[in-house]
Design goal:
This protein has 73 residues and is mostly helical. The chain contains two helices and no strands. The N and C termini lie far apart (85 Å).
């Protein structure tokens, strides 16, 4: 039996209120863990991009200043 057939005779409030609440109640911890892990992963990726960008900025700043000081000699 398909889920559509099971839910066919039930009132709308059971389909759209009670069933989602039960899913959240049963799988809430898993959903929270997955969302937390994805957020942690995105934060780490953004942190990595920021650190690499800062490193590239600092290296270019120092190499360009050292080139101009060499040209002055």
């Amino acid at each position: 039996m398909a889920a559509k057939q099971i839910l066919q005779g039930l009132p709308w409030w059971v389909k759209w209120v009670v069933v989602p609440l039960l899913v959240i109640l049963v799988f809430g911890g898993l959903i929270t863990s997955v969302v937390g892990f994805v957020a942690w992963l995105l934060f780490r990726a953004l942190l990595l991009v920021a650190v690499i960008g800062g490193l590239v900025y600092v290296v270019r700043k120092f190499t360009s200043s050292s080139r101009s000081s060499r040209d002055d000699w």
